Predict the 3D structure of the following.
Amino acid sequence: AKYWWQRYSLFSKFDEGIKMDEEGWFSVTPEVIAKHQAMRCSSPVVIDAFAGVGGNTIQFALRSEHVIAIDKDPMKIAYARHNAEIYGVSHRIDFVVGDFFQLAPSLKADVIFLSPPWGGPEYLKDTSYDISMLQPKDGFTLFNTAQRVASNIAFYLPRNVDLEQLKELSCLFDPPVEFEIEKNFVNDKLKAITVYYGEICQHDR
């Protein structure tokens, strides 16, 4: 019920026919946060590595030239395509059904956005969220894979994530890159953390 009351914060055009699966209700990035992330990540080519039902993908497509939306669940990709059509941006998006880890060697982009499954709402029970809990692979493996695809990475994570681990990730680049930890609030409530690595950490665009 609480997710239903939040539906317009997830998609402002919800009443125009937005489709979501059960996981989408608790995993879609609130639209106001997705808009801000898209502004920070605005680039010729952006990859949304775990697109889900398209919340972030749509906002990227509104501000970037081309978006590659990847998800291994065909139903999620079908919903993401449908939702992107409602927002009028499906023509800027390549929708790909597949495993990001398998596709990564053939991918290149200016920015890659990582919002992998956090493990459901249960993650909030932990005082500090360890990125090894990310699914389907731990955060270090994911980041190592992503940094071969793009020199700029945006990583969307739980609000209780271990901040020291986020610093460690910057050292996986050779040489290490700059990073910026950003707290994401909705209605004065801390919802999540976004970490920017590379040139996108330097300023808002």
Q: What stands out?
A: The first strand starts at residue 45 and ends at 48. The radius of gyration is 16 Å. The CA atoms of residues 32 and 188 lie 12 Å apart.
